[in-house]
Design goal:
The complex is a heterodimer of chains A (about 600) and B (about 475). In chain A, about 35% of the residues lie in helices and about 20% in strands. Chain A has 22 helices and 22 strands. Chain A is elongated, with a radius of gyration of 33 Å. In chain B, a hairpin with a 2-residue loop joins strand 1 and strand 2. The longest helix of chain B has about 35 residues. Classes of the chains: A alpha+beta (about 600), B mainly alpha (about 475). The interface between A and B is large, with 36 and 44 residues.
């Protein structure tokens, strides 16, 4: 009995130790989760955020700067049991004690061992104070924020914000808390501007204190700073344009015709880009979203307007190229074109030749031209390709398609096709679509396309894709597509008579925009007064200057501004003057434009 | 007669076992060094640091070990009761003049050192039990002896519990190893296993499942002892039938009776014919099994009651966590969780001496004392851990064999007592660090930092070695 009990006991001991051994085998070799947990314990992966690339104007002036900012992070587990000085920390971080408590609470409910953001965007001074305070469990994370010294070009520059879940899922580069450009240049050149995130792996002890780099920093990656970008924008001109457009809804775009570089791009109302930065960003953003005039909507590239009379330039050029009109051809106008539905015109002397019709913006004249193009028997008349032929010409001017600028949000506008009308009308002819003779009807184009038309006029027949980037740091050139001229289907020689007319618009008595005259600048322009279903006519003006060897092409579009000559033309004129002369010699006109009140009952209705 | 120069019996000292002990002490010290190791502040050797202190204690222990080996073994027999009485007194005094550390008032401060009398009480108790049980008239079947042994254990347990040192008190359970060897009725152990099984089962199984298990246990065990297949099947069948009838009736009358209740009623009712059957056929084991069955049911009820109404929330949580039902990684469960992470992250070969990240960066609380095994697991890996537990296993088995080869019961009982204490400490401590055992704060012999613990294990062990070295058949010399 005794012997066997001794043996039982010894086997019992062996069995128990075997159980312990098996358990050890399981947690040390079979189950790998403990290894991961151990790494989670001691390794802290810290993202190293690179400074975002700066954005300069064409003269090297800052449009957007990167400034240091620090996010206050917490690992709730590492907060000492005894707590910390909440009041002091709240004061340093410039938030209320209540906000701080709430943020820490939500961090706790997210994870006790993983880091969460408690307070965003602390200043460098606050960070230094925090470092002195020695708050266990908390640390700061370097970020860069934007600052906009000129406070201009909100929609053009765009804004940055934290990535959302959608972006994180689509693009593995981003993770929670990262910033991304959401619109404008910030979005178009995101991949250059953002730089490359780095990663620092540190070893931490139980209280979260950093004990040093992991494996002597062998696995660390340095952050690569974002690439600075020089834009084509002229900051002072942009600022002036924004001032002039204040209180008006619409858009101004100026292009350097010889390169396609965008000098000015205003979408009005605009906003101070700083408002979409910093802690008040959320409330400012909501406010802008709720603003009926939609300041966040970049009208310059996203809206679609009827081009109005500026479109007569296109029809005139097509008519000349097609040989259905000559510069000396005259048409009579008895306050309109009275065939079919008819098109009204203003009271002016009659008849006019082509040049005069452009200067004076005679509707009747261009109705004749338009019908001549569409019904041209050489092209088989409207049913057999006359219309398609016209449409092809129009598209060669960059209408009805995206130009391919750097703005991803660019809209194509609308040039109706023959099929489009086939669907609407069982039987239609040139009289059915007559309103397109004067840029009305179904036509829709963006201000960018109109400015591009101005550039085409200035270049006498071709354009470079309008773009905002002039130079990318470390690169010899920008995208190849911006160097390639795009020719219209109209020969250079047909431009002169039309340009003559444009010159007359400003310089001749018969012209519709004498107000745009500036001595010595030889501004060539075309007014437009676009009817629209939203109320008073839109005022638009398209111009370039000087007439020979043009330096600037511009399009101004002011919603509900009335006649082209009443708002758009003076604004365009002032901008050209400032750009070419460096200063404006007509302070009373500036004042007049600034004081001008335009009612927008349509926007206020919402 | 022994020759004068072989009084100690050096030639018969079990050097192999001592070697295992010494290797474990050395490994223990290395791990304490690793546990307190800190790259920045480890310039030069510092005797005031834990590893330095431990080295001093190792030195003291070595001296004590030699002294123990030099003392004539007759004194251990002689001094058993006086030592026991003296230690009881010291233990008792600690209640009043002791110092409270970690909530337990179990420390005695003597100048620069603090000692834990409870650690040494184990030695005295082991000696006293050995002395008492080696009495030629001792028998477990005598109630008086049983009660006396019980008292020898319960008195120190009571005082230690009063000191609020649950872990040290539980160590006295280890004497059940000796009792088993010395012939305590096996049924006590079956009962213990049943109780533990039921306790664990009561948390893991539904009450119905548990009842079915108990019922089957009852039928199968009585069948094994009585070989009555017909009656066994008949019993099971009628219990099931009756329970279904009761359940069906209750359902028909809309009483909302649970099947568990129906089964409980029918099995208790059917016990009556079963007992009558046992009486007629003189099958006494059926009574026993029936008592165990009913007793188990009562025990389950008691567990529910104690767990829900008596245990405090943190105690409930510990039990639930141990059984893998619940875990609170933020609160007290943090220790075990971190401990498992440290050991688990060691892998096959470990991270290397002084390379344990969890150890180095203080993720494990109590890492040089109760959770010292984490350092072994993390830095030495599975291989190192296996070596350590193999050494412990070998030490314990060798102590048992040492006991087995004694011709004198006093020596045998003492050796088994020591083996039991080592076994209990090792299993509970390592088991705790890997989540097999509840968190009970007792040290890992030779590894955990602490002078009292090291010294008491040294004394325990070397007395056994000393007694073994003098193993003689002249046990009569002890009796005066």
């Amino acid at each position: 009995m005794a012997r066997s009990r001794s043996e039982i006991l010894q086997w019992f001991v062996v069995a128990l130790f075997l159980v312990v051994g098996l358990r050890l085998f399981h947690i040390q070799i079979v189950d790998r989760s403990y290894r991961r947990a151990a790494e989670n314990n001691v390794l802290r992966y810290e993202v190293q955020y690179p400074p975002r690339g700066e954005i300069y104007d064409r003269n090297g002036e800052f449009l957007a700067q990167s400034v240091a900012s620090y996010d206050l992070m917490v690992v709730p587990r590492n907060i000492p049991e005894s707590g910390f000085d909440t009041v002091a920390l709240a004061k340093i971080a410039d938030v209320s004690v209540e906000q701080l408590r709430k943020a820490i609470q939500s961090a706790k409910s997210f994870s006790s061992t993983r880091a969460s953001v408690v307070v965003r965007q602390m200043s460098t001074e606050a960070k230094l104070l925090f470092d002195e305070g020695g708050f266990d469990g908390f640390y700061t994370l370097f970020h860069t924020q934007r600052s906009y010294p000129r406070k201009i070009a909100g929609n053009l520059l765009g804004y940055i914000g934290q990535v959302n879940d959608d972006i994180i899922q689509r693009n593995p580069y981003y993770s929670r808390g990262d910033y991304i450009g959401y619109s404008g240049i910030e979005s178009a050149y995101e991949e250059l501007l953002r730089g490359e995130k780095g990663e620092k792996i540190s070893v931490v002890d139980v209280s979260g204190a950093v004990k040093g780099p992991y494996q002597e920093g062998h696995y660390d990656r340095m952050a690569v700073a974002g690439t600075p970008i020089t834009t084509t924008i002229d900051a002072s001109l942009q600022e002036f344009a924004e001032e002039l457009m204040k209180g008006k809804v619409g858009s101004v775009i100026a292009i350097e015709p010889s390169t396609g570089e965008i000098l000015v791009m205003v979408s009005s109302p605009t906003y101070d880009p700083d408002q979409l930065m910093g802690r008040d960003r959320g409330s400012n953003y909501v406010e802008m979203l709720n603003n009926p005039r939609q300041p966040l909507f970049n009208r310059a590239v996203m809206s679609s307007y009827p081009p109005g009379s500026t479109f007569k330039l296109v029809n005139g050029l097509i008519g000349l190229q097609e040989g259905v009109v000559t510069p000396s051809m005259e048409y009579a106008c008895n306050e309109g074109y009275h065939v079919g539905r008819g098109v009204k015109c203003h009271n002016h002397r009659s008849p006019l030749d082509l040049r005069e019709a452009v200067s004076n913006s005679c509707n009747a004249y261009f109705c004749h031209v338009f019908r001549n193009i569409l019904d041209n028997p050489k092209r088989g008349g409207i049913g057999e390709g006359g219309y398609d032929n016209w449409e092809e010409y129009v598209r060669s001017f960059g209408f009805g398609k995206k130009l391919g600028s750097d703005f991803a949000s660019e809209r194509a506008g609308f040039v109706p096709s023959a099929e489009f009308y086939d669907n609407y009308y069982p039987k239609w002819n040139s009289l059915t679509v007559i309103s397109m003779a004067i840029g009305q009807g179904e036509l829709g184009c963006s201000p960018l396309q109109m400015a591009n038309l101005a550039a085409i006029m200035a270049n006498r027949g071709y354009y470079y894709i309008p773009h905002v980037v002039k130079h990318i740091d470390g690169r010899d050139s920008i995208d190849a597509r911006f160097y390639e001229p795009h020719y219209t289907k109209v020969d250079k020689r047909y431009f002169e008579p039309i340009i003559d007319g444009m010159w007359g618009t400003v310089h001749r008595e018969i012209g519709s925009a004498g107000v745009a005259y500036v001595e010595g600048l030889n501004i060539c322009g075309k007014t437009g007064t676009a009817q629209n279903p939203h109320g008073k006519d839109h005022s638009t003006f398209l111009a370039f200057a000087p007439r020979h060897n043009p330096k600037i092409a511009i399009s101004v579009y002011v919603e509900n501004g009335g006649f082209g000559s009443s708002v758009a033309a003076p604004i365009a004129s002032l901008l050209i003057e400032k750009y070419l002369n460096g200063e404006v010699a007509r302070p009373e006109l500036v004042e007049y434009i600034k004081q001008m009140k335009i009612a927008y009952p349509n926007y206020e209705k919402r | 007669m022994r020759s004068a120069n072989d009084r100690v019996g050096w030639s018969r000292v079990d050097w192999k076992t001592i070697l295992i002990f010494v290797v474990l002490v050395f490994m223990g010290w290395l791990n304490i060094y690793a546990a307190v190791y800190n790259e920045t502040s480890m310039l030069g050797f510092d005797f005031s640091a834990k590893y330095g202190m431990q080295l001093i204690w190792i030195g003291i222990s070595a001296v004590v070990a030699i002294i123990i080996l030099l003392i004539d073994d007759i004194y251990y027999h002689l001094m058993a009761y006086p030592a026991y009485a003296l230690m009881l007194l010291v233990l008792f005094l600690t209640l009043f003049i002791g110092k409270e550390i970690n909530g337990a008032k179990s420390w005695f401060v003597l100048g620069p050192v603090s000692v834990q009398p409870a650690e040494f009480m184990k030695v005295a108790t082991a000696l006293a039990i050995a002395r008492f049980m080696s009495d030629y008239s001792f028998s477990f079947s005598r109630t008086k002896d049983l009660v006396s042994v019980g008292l020898l254990l319960l008195v120190p347990i009571a005082i230690i519990l009063l000191q609020n040192d649950m872990g040290s008190a539980l160590v006295y359970c280890s004497f059940f190893v000796v009792f088993y060897r010395e012939g305590l009725n096996s049924w006590v152990y079956y009962a213990i296993f049943l109780v533990v099984g039921l306790f664990v089962g009561s948390f893991l199984l539904s009450d119905t499942a548990l009842l079915i298990v108990l019922l089957l246990l009852f039928v199968v065990s009585q069948f094994l002892s009585n070989r009555n297949p017909r009656e066994s099947v008949w019993f099971v069948a009628s219990v099931m039938l009756l329970s279904l009838v009761i359940y069906g009736l209750a359902w028909a009358f809309g009483w909302g009776l649970r099947y568990y209740s129906a089964l409980l009623i029918s099995s208790l009712v059917m016990l009556v014919p079963a007992l009558i059957y046992a009486y007629r056929n003189k099958l006494s084991t059926i009574y026993l099994f029936a008592i165990m069955f009913v007793g188990s049911l009562l025990f389950l009820g008691a567990v529910d009651f104690v767990f829900n109404d008596i245990l405090q929330l943190h105690q409930q949580k510990r039990i639930l966590d141990l059984l893998g039902i619940e875990s609170d990684l933020r609160g007290w469960g943090y220790n075990v969780h971190q401990s498992k992470i440290a050991i688990g992250s060691g892998g096959l070969f470990g991270k290397g001496f002084l390379q344990g990240t969890q150890t180095k960066y203080d993720f494990i609380p109590e890492q040089s004392t109760d959770f010292i095994f984490c350092t072994v697991g993390e830095e030495w890996g599975f291989v190192g851990s296996a070596v350590v537990i193999a050494l412990f296993g070998a030490l314990i088995v060798r102590l048992m064999r040492m006991g087995e080869r004694q011709q004198e019961p006093f020596r045998r009982v003492y050796c088994y007592g020591v083996a039991g204490i080592f076994l209990f400490h090792t299993l509970i401590n390592i088991g705790m660090t890997i989540g097999l055992m509840p968190v009970i704060g007792i040290p890992l012999p030779m590894f955990s930092y602490g002078g009292s613990s090291l010294l008491s294990f040294t004394i325990l062990f070397f007395i056994a070695v000393r007694l073994d070295s003098q193993n003689s058949s002249i046990g009569a010399t002890y009796r005066f």
